[in-house]
Write a structure and sequence with these properties.
CATH architecture of the largest domain in chain B: Orthogonal Bundle
Radius of gyration of chain A: 22 Å
CATH class of the largest domain in chain A: Alpha Beta
Largest sheet of chain A: 10 strands, mixed
Number of helices of chain A: 19
Number of strands of chain B: 2
Distance between the termini of chain A: 43 Å
Number of strands of chain A: 12
Strand order of the largest sheet of chain B: 1-2
Structural class of chain B: mainly alpha
CATH superfamily of the largest domain in chain A: Periplasmic binding protein-like II
Strand content of chain B: under 5%
Number of domains of chain A: 2
Number of helices of chain B: 13
Largest interface: A-B, 52 and 59 residues
Oligomer: heterodimer
Number of domains of chain B: 2
Largest sheet of chain B: 2 strands, antiparallel
């Protein structure tokens, strides 16, 4: 990207920096109306109805017995979470989707209605509860309470393993055994990212290496923590040397107590949503919980290296956004075809070169490197080499070994978890 | 003969129809509004009340079993946040009144033929989306933003001075957001005051302060109360300002309800909290109605 030629406000990385995919929908939809809508939906008793039929192990009436290719596909993704280009008329295009259409004949209706997991879940739950299709064949959902709820409610279509050869061949081994989807029955990863610590070395005036640095009295009032209670709770558990997957309610309480102590001693400036990155860039916080891709993009858009992302020596949280097919989807065959299609290294590389989060296909790195070797102008070449060598896109085995997923929570555990950690962030 | 015989009968029929139509007219006229109110206010409110008395969880489903603990649990757990709502919302309402009253007074009495132009100028910023304006304040009030940055650079403010992420910033944001809802009713009531009353007070040797105290201010009170309601109610319920401009210790009730609904999928608790909120606001409205009627709120 040549910053001298492209005006800054048109620089895609700048735009991404402004509207990262994890931007909270609360920012967009907050208005006096939202509250009453909330009340109204609650009033309609969504989520009432009780149990749905259990998924059958024998695959009686399996979706895949009858479904056929329809030639069209409705894809619900997060904002700016796919490669984009421009056609001659200046319209946004999606090169990887165009390639998919050319290769398979399936036309993709791509949209980006998902702003955060909780609000997306709240939005589609009423339709799914009534057994109606939500109008999308693929949706991208992060591991976490919502993902667990989708599965427990039997709101996801069980995948046909015979239709996902590329996934089994090319997906990173760690992604083929995820705690939140044992047996890869319902989901395939889209991209992953890390929750760790971001900081500005000029302001902290020292290297940050440890989770304990978030509790350093020298940073009083300058620490940013996340308002997402799964992120804040799990990272604290890791920081205290407790494996989230083995943690018990008593550990959660200990973590919450530690966080309350941090809060009450005036260290925390605020519990942030996506806006944390703005505070970090503005110097309002010096050190903050952070998502890996954001720091990379913030530096890219500011044209400097002011911010650093670190995987604390105690470890970091890894999260994975997963493609899944909601029940009742009209075009399941087209959906699974696409989900498997992106596991070809060449396609995964197209996506990785743009998105800068952790790609699920390690072999994509070779493709990015050969693209870099073939690049004619040095800016493109540097950009591609940056992607290939970024530990945040292709993390080292060492870094990955230090990461944990969120604790998978049963419904009763989830309500315990929420009670414990809400008491920290709701002040 | 036949014609003569049928004539009065037909006349009676017409008379009956007219009487029926006259009797039904008010009900027919109120039907659209009443239906609207029923469909979009009464029914949701009832559903909210029902949901607030359910128990269970999202996965296994909620059951209606008169579970009043949602109320006691919710109020006990989140009373600090409800108090924040009252505190920040109340402060914002007072601030808006203090700023809006003189402005409205000046426009109503001294702006002459350019009244509408001044009103337009005051209201102009509010044509921009509320979220964008609040986001702009987040930038403007930033620790090193356009306002405090230069002051810090020349040493007028200590380096760690900040307004963002404090209760003051939240109250300020609320006062700013709902300012027009204060200004307009106050202006409307001041504008309506019969100038002859002011003149006669002056003829009776009132000085300007007395004119204001005994004539103008009392006559503008309905507008003030309407403004207080129109500002206070959304300010109490708002959760955008506390999210953008607040920090630790500024969570308001609206945010708690949102969290319970979206993140915790605890619909009964969210409904109970929302219902408490609605009841509080309804009480304020009834109080207003009791003292002032609805004439000045909706205009006549």
């Amino acid at each position: 990207m040549n910053k001298d030629v492209v005006p800054e406000h048109l620089d895609p990385s700048f735009i991404r920096g402004l509207t990262q995919r994890r931007i909270s929908r609360r920012t967009a939809l907050k208005g006096a109306g939202a509250l009453s809508v909330t009340g109204f939906l609650a009033a309609c008793g969504i989520g009432g109805g009780g149990t749905t039929a259990p998924a059958s192990a024998q695959h009686v009436n399996w979706v895949w017995d009858k479904a056929t290719k329809a030639g069209t596909l409705d894809f619900a993704n997060w904002p700016l979470y796919i490669d984009t280009g421009q056609d001659a008329a200046g319209n946004t295009t999606y090169p990887s989707l165009q390639k998919f259409t050319a290769d398979t004949g399936i036309k993709v209706n791509y949209s980006e209605p998902i702003q955060d997991n909780a609000s997306w879940f709240a939005k589609v739950a009423p339709e799914l509860q009534q057994g109606q299709p939500i109008g999308f064949d693929i949706m991208v959902v992060t591991n976490g309470i919502e993902m667990t709820n989708f599965q427990l409610k039997h709101w996801l279509t069980e995948l046909d393993p015979t239709k996902m050869p590329n996934f089994f061949k090319n997906a990173a081994p760690r992604l083929q055994k995820r705690q939140f989807d044992p047996g890869n029955k319902f989901t395939m990863p889209w991209q992953s990212g890390l929750t760790g610590i971001g900081y500005n070395p000029k302001l902290t005036q020292r290297e940050i290496t440890s989770f304990a640095d978030l509790f350093d009295p020298a940073f009083k009032g300058r620490v940013g923590m996340f308002t997402n209670n799964e992120d804040v709770g799990n990272l604290t558990l890791v920081g205290m040397g407790i494996k989230p997957e083995k943690s018990k309610a008593s550990d959660w309480q200990k973590a919450a107590d530690k966080l309350k102590q941090q809060r009450d001693s005036g260290l925390v400036r605020k519990y942030y949503d996506q806006s944390y990155i703005k505070a970090l860039e503005a110097g309002e916080t010096w050190i903050s919980m952070a998502w890996s891709g954001d720091i990379f993009q913030a530096n890219l858009s500011a044209g400097n290296d002011d911010l650093k992302f670190v995987v604390p020596k105690e470890g970091a949280i890894i999260w994975t956004d997963n493609m899944c097919i909601p029940v009742g989807a009209a075009h399941p065959v087209d959906a699974i075809t696409y989900m498997d299609y992106v596991y070809q290294p060449a396609i995964a590389a197209m996506l990785a070169e743009y998105i800068d989060y952790i790609t699920p296909v390690p072999a994509a790195r070779d493709v990015v490197l050969s693209d870099a070797a073939a690049a004619t102008d040095s800016a493109t070449k540097d950009g591609l080499l940056g992607t290939a060598n970024s530990p945040l896109v292709f993390p080292s085995a060492d870094d990955l070994a230090k990461t944990s997923y969120y604790r998978v929570l049963t419904p009763s555990e989830a309500s315990q978890w929420n009670d414990i950690f809400n008491a920290v962030i709701i002040t | 003969m036949q014609a003569v015989a049928t004539q009065p009968q037909a006349g009676r029929k017409v008379a009956f129809r007219v009487r029926l139509a006259r009797a039904a007219a008010p009900y027919l006229l109120i039907l659209p509004g009443g239906g609207w109110l029923l469909l979009f206010f009464v029914l949701p409110l009832l559903a909210l009340a029902v949901t607030s008395l359910e128990s269970g969880d999202f996965i296994t489903g909620f059951k209606f079993d008169l579970n009043f603990t949602n109320y006691s649990f919710g109020i006990q757990l989140y009373s600090p946040q409800f108090l924040h709502s009252i505190e920040f919302g109340g402060l914002a309402t007072i601030a808006a009144l203090v700023i809006a009253y003189p402005a409205a007074y000046w426009i109503a009495f001294h702006a002459g033929p350019r009244k509408s132009a001044y009103l337009l100028i005051v209201l102009l910023p509010f044509f921009v989306s509320f979220v964008i304006r609040t986001l702009s304040w987040e930038t403007l009030l930033g620790d090193f933003g356009p306002i405090f940055g230069p002051l810090k650079n020349i040493g007028l403010l200590p380096n760690d001075f900040h307004v963002l992420a404090t209760p003051a910033a939240v109250s300020f944001g609320l006062a700013y957001t709902f300012f027009p809802y204060m200004l307009l009713p106050v202006y409307a009531s001041l504008e309506k005051i019969d100038r002859r009353l002011v003149e006669s007070a002056e003829d009776l040797y009132s000085n300007r302060v007395d004119v204001f105290r005994h004539v103008i201010f009392p006559l503008s009170l309905p507008g003030v109360f309407a403004g207080v309601l129109l500002t206070g109610i959304p300010a109490f319920a708002d959760y955008v300002n506390q999210d953008f401009l607040g920090g630790v210790g500024t969570t308001m009730a609206g945010r708690v309800i949102e969290q319970q609904f979206e993140v915790d999928t605890n619909y009964p608790l969210a409904s109970a909290l929302a219902f408490v909120f609605m009841l509080g606001l309804l009480a304020m409205l009834l109080l207003y109605q009791r003292f002032f009627g609805t004439k000045d709120l909706i205009g006549d």
